Amino acid sequence: MKNRKLSSSAAIGVVLCLSFSLISCDTPSRNNTNLAQERILMETGGSAAGDFGPPVGEPIIATLTSAPDVPPPIDRNTPAKLIVNLEVRELEMPISEGVMYTFWTFGGTVPGSFIRVRQGDTIEFHLANHPSSKMPHNIDLHAVTGSGGGASSSFTAPGHESQFTFKALNQGLFVYHCATAPVGMHIANGMYGLILVEPPEGLPPVDREYYVMQGEFYTVGKYREKGHQEFDMQKAIEENATYVLFNGSEGALVGDNALRANVGDTIRLFVGNGGPNLVSSFHVIGEIFDKVFTEGGTHYQENVQTTLVPAGGSAITEFRVEVPGTLVIVDHSIFRAFNKGALGMIKVDGPENLAVYTGKEVDSVYLGDKVKDLTAVAEVATAYSTTGEVTIAQQIAAGEVLFAGTCSVCHQLDGSGLATVFPPLAGADFFLADTTRAIDIALNGLMGPVTVNGQSYDSVMPPMSQLNDDEIANILTYSLNSWGNDGGRVTREDVAERRASTERPPGAAH
Ligand SMILES: [Cu+2]
């Protein structure tokens, strides 16, 4: 296939030689080759396979970066020999607050190190597998023209290093991933990253470039279930993801880790999707992509709201930020954003531009507990995992954050409810009369007539069964000890017992 491509560009070269008599075709020197290549690039919009001859100058060690950082643009007019040193490490790291996972990584991070090369470069690739690894690994780079994308040449046992060399013939933004059996499992554990092959003339300059890569994870425990979580092969086969994440953890792009920009900046996002299964509906809430290089290829679409990024594929999105505020990066397959973690932020600083937007922030509506300080929640998790116990004060602190992110939408932050629509929890005779019933309501919802403090309600509360036992215990403990209520405590064991003994209503999460 590549041969066909090469010979077709050779054919274009011949046509060019015939039609541009200023190129002398019978004595090919490097200059002429370059000139011919430039013609091809003009003719094809810059997408010609680029063998620009042998590398020029001393070998260069490639600068690799961890997400969200991107190596600096390449400032060279000639192809080089580039040495890439990438080390595989198997590391236990947080996947969410208080949740640990053993990731398999390229370069110690998920996604793996960003590699930036120039079209026509010759890349001498060194893949090392750290001695502490339990598994052999390899690498398949979609930027490679050659068997298995390098996979067959890079199989590397723990404590070993492999080397192979390839020429980056095609420009574009390419995914790389591990391709050791079981392939799905290696990818599901975080073994993917991006390699950018810049066109010879480089990419147009922008103010900020960032690296954002989606991938989903399959754990035995539920979403946000605390402690160490194992990979769940059956869930992976069923494509039933527990987490869908940008940059390998729920906190990777929120709060203090949000991407930053100033009003007026142009931003280029190198977006990848490692999968292993899901296709991303990549969207930035509050922005329109001025340009999207769909599928990481050469041509761009303009004025795009949401772009599809396939598993094992990429996209380059570019946009100028016009107003200050928080832009929210999501997979617009929206349950993934709010119930599986596919959420990130770009914080834009600078003066308002009221002509473009009046400036009322909607962060709280969109983000709920995501924007709140989650350290209280993490403290509870840590206390559980180290001592097996939490104090009531820790539960109340964590419960406050969780209540704000879930229940307050209806029952209000001060527990006062909304007359005739949402009953109060503050001083509520119904709530305070029976804690076990309150657990059931949080788990299974409530419908039909109820009377709270003499006022009757006949509405529906949906089941909050996306919350785990910890979370419900903390929310109820917080509610029992707030707004003048007379105290009490609900433990996660109490909730687990009710979860096991009451039936989930149809359609509720288990
Ligand atoms: Cu692997």
Please give a structural write-up.
The chain contains 13 helices and 23 strands. The protein has helices at 2-19, 30-44, 183-188, 233-237, 335-339, 363-367, 375-387, 392-405, 408-411, 429-433, 435-444, 469-480, 492-501, and strands at residues 60-61, 81-96, 99-106, 115-118, 122-129, 140-141, 161-167, 172-177, 192-198, 208-217, 227-229, 243-246, 259-262, 266-273, 280-285, 289-293, 301-304, 306-309, 313-320, 325-331, 343-349, 446-452, 455-461. The strands form 5 sheets. Strands 1, 2, 3, 5, 7 and 11 form a 6-stranded mixed sheet that branches. The protein has a 6-stranded mixed sheet with strand order 12-10-14-19-16-17. A hairpin with a 7-residue loop joins strand 16 and strand 17. Helix 1 packs across helix 2 (30-44), helix 7 crosses helix 8 (392-405) and helix 8 packs across helix 12. The protein is elongated and about 85 Å long. The model is unreliable at 1-33, 42-47 and 361-366 (pLDDT under 50).
